[in-house]
Amino acid sequence: MYTSALLTDLYELTMGAGYLEQGNADDTATFDLYFRHNPFRGGYAVAAGLQDAIHSVMSLRFSNEDIAFLKLLRGASGSRLFSEAFLQCLSEFRFQGNIRAIPEGTVVFPNEPLVQVTGRLIECQMVETILLCHINFQTLVATKAARLWEASGHGTVVEFGLRRAQGPDGAMRACRGAYIGGADGTSNVLGCATFGVPARGTHAHSWVQSFTTELEAFRAYARTFPDDCVLLVDTYDVLKSGLQNAIQVAKELEQRGHRLAGIRIDSGDLAFLSQRAREMLDRAGLDYVKIIVSNELDEFIIADIADQGGKIDIWGVGTNLVTAGGEGGCALGGVYKMVEHNGKPKIKLSSNPEKMTNPGIKKVWRFYDDQGYMEADALAQASEDVSHPGILIIDPNNPLRRKKLNSSRRVELLTDIVMGGKIVYEFPPLDLVRTRRKEQLAHLHESHRRLRNAHVYKVGLTRALWQQKEQMLNQVTV
Fold it and tell me: Do residues 148 and 187 make contact, with C-beta atoms less than 8 angstroms apart?
């Protein structure tokens, strides 16, 4: 049986084999994992996926079957790809390095390390793909969920995307990321069992179609779930049929000592239909009945519906949440770059300035202004003192853009997660991660949270780090 150790890019293995062959596998190195652009053309991201990533790294073991498969691999020339010495190295592989990271639920920005890995060169290289796989996707989905939550006015968002996800594992990771980012429930029962996300759902149109009349279908569902009944009212006609029948069933439930939980609208003009639905329900004395909407929602549609006066209590978002699709949908594009080798800072050059790396082992400091809002993040050398006032940060992509930080309130973001191959961090329950996300967004100015034309949050290098980078740029030889 193959294991997830093979869930890696081939070049991680070929580089590892090369390091061993060239005698530098035991060199020391540090790598930074970060992203270059905010997803969805927005102003921030929400860090997620760390717990899954760390557990995958720490459980990375090559089984006998994995080794047997790798032994069969051939290169383009037809010769064996991997030597016996390298395969033996893989069979004994255990991550023994150090990992520092920004905790899940933290608001993060481009070009600052989300994860920092230090250890033997070969082991740092071997964990690249699995770290990126977990962090990239869950951060993307958590950010999408946060944007949906913001667009709804901090309303109730439910993740309905299991059937549209990129496969079963994508569905599960999306469920977790969505819950961190702002979803309050899920239709994914396994996600509920695994992550403790509240289970939420209604019924499909097929339920209504399987009965002779819509009223009969609603009555049957209400008999089965008298205290958790949500009726889908758009199988035939929302206003002329579905809502009228739902109101009748709600009254019948009241007579039996129960209450209709809600109605769901899955098509049509959701702003208009929700307004009329609220009017009809309230006139019938059913002001407690919740209105749920679905149908290919994303944050921009939600914002438009809210601006049009839609009367919606719960937003069911499927495809565009679990796939991070909709307007501006994209991948996160996180990268993993070497920043130190054998104790010496390293830099990657590019004709595109934003693709140049920031050298050396760093700390990430977040500064807050007098109103308690995040003001800027400073990337500093690991040994650098930033406790004094007047810290200057420099935009590495445009050194003419500079900002002086005089605030006395600052927080270091990177924390120890793994030390010497042992997990030293206690991962909090997801409810506490969600609380961190709420608190973080409350301290991020609205100008950075807006859906369109968000202001760019300042992330810069301290003067010492910038001078080190500039010196390396001047000294580099090809």
Answer: no
pTM comes to 0.96
The domains found in the chain, sorted by start residue, are: 143-322 (3.20.20.70)
Separation between Cα atoms, residue 435 and residue 107, nearest integer Å: 12
Using alpha carbons, select from 320, 297, 327, 355 the residue that is nearest to residue 42.
327
**What was the pLDDT predicted at 329?**
63
**Antiparallel, parallel or unpaired: β 422-423 and 459-462:** unpaired
**Rounded distance, CA 381 to CA 376, Å?**
16
240-245's contacts with Cβ under 8 Å and 24+ in sequence apart are 241/214, 242/214, 243/276, 243/277, 243/280, 243/281, 244/280, 245/214, 245/215, 245/218
Task: Classify residue 357 as exposed, middle or buried by CB count within 10 Å of its CB (0-12, 13-18, 19+).
Answer: buried
Half-sphere exposure for 189 (CA within 13 Å, toward CB): 1
Identify the bridge partners of residue 40 per DSSP, sorted by sequence position: none
Q: Which residue has the tokens 């061993």?
A: 20
Asked whether the beta carbons of 407 and 369 are under 8 A apart, the reply is yes
User: In sequence order, what are the beta bridge partners of 115?
Assistant: 33, 101
Q: Identify whether the C-beta of residue 97 lies closer than 8 Å to the C-beta of residue 424.
A: no
What SS3 string covers 62-103? Answer: CCHHHHHHHHHCECCCCCECCCHHHHHHHHCCCCCCEEEECC
CA distance 100 to 466: 22
Which pLDDT value is given to residue 478?
Answer: 52
DSSP-assigned beta bridge partners for residue 266: none
- Angle in degrees, 0-180, between the axes of helices 128-151 and 299-307, rounded to the nearest 10: 10
- pLDDT tens track for 73-83: 998 888 999 99
3 state DSSP class of 204: coil
Amino acid found at 113? P
Residues 6+ apart with CB under 8 A from 68: none
Residue 462's DSSP bridge partners are 393
Strands 185-186 and 230-232, by their bridges, are unpaired
pLDDT of residue 477: 56
User: In what side-by-side order are the strands of the sheet with 344-345?
Assistant: 344-345, 335-341, 28-34, 115-120, 98-101, 415-419, 422-423
Contact between 145 and 157 under an 8 Å Cβ cutoff? The reply is yes
Dihedral sign of CA atoms 166, 171, 175, 177 in order: negative
